[in-house]
């Protein structure tokens, strides 16, 4: 907790509660990171068994979101936190929402694989590189969240531009397949959907960066471009 520069409270129990809920977020984040890692590997390897395990484990992520959300609601009702403490609780609530949606990406990719189990086809283009980049973004933003590190959060925020460029490149490649051979359209649409879902993981990681800024600086920086955020935080 000291690393997060949290206020000291007369109630040691309050500190314990904040520490506990923060740790739960990191546990949930680790679960989501593993789910996403497995999903990217499964789509690359066309591993149906791995895909089924991802689908089977999705409820664990959902259950953690509900549990953490309920704990945050209890803290607000019982402790009535103010200032930075309230910002922390709100940042946690928003963060677990984005983590759950990243978990949904892994689940949906896995379900797409199992749905097409009777006609397995390797992706027309590789999504592995973009997938690995988003996995690293998620790992790094969770680390930034653990330390409430503005510099680390800003670095992750800027990485999304690279994800976007890879996504655009994949779209162009897929469009070429469709134009050259209309028979590939069904397969292209599946790959296109998966690519879009992975690209959205980068956006979710950016959101978590924004929540870190909100907690540390007390500023709402949603919908801010990377260069504008750099100037705003004085990190030029």
UniProtKB/TrEMBL annotation:
Pfam families according to UniProt: PhoU
Gene3D superfamilies the record matches: Phosphate transport system protein phou homolog 2, domain 2
GO biological process: intracellular phosphate ion homeostasis; negative regulation of phosphate metabolic process; phosphate ion transport
SUPFAM superfamilies xrefs: PhoU-like (SSF109755)
Cellular localisation: Cytoplasm
InterPro entries membership: PhoU, PhoU-like_sf, PhoU_dom
Keywords, comma-separated and alphabetical: Cytoplasm, Phosphate transport, Transport
Start and end residues of each PhoU domain: 27-111, 128-212
Record flagged with keyword Transmembrane helix: no
GO CC entries: cytoplasm
NCBIfam families xrefs: phoU_full, PRK11115.1
Function comment: Plays a role in the regulation of phosphate uptake.
Similarity-based family: Belongs to the PhoU family.
Subunit comment: Homodimer.
PANTHER family for this protein: PHOSPHATE-SPECIFIC TRANSPORT SYSTEM ACCESSORY PROTEIN PHOU (PTHR42930:SF3)
Protein name, entry field: Phosphate-specific transport system accessory protein PhoU
Source organism: Aeromonas cavernicola
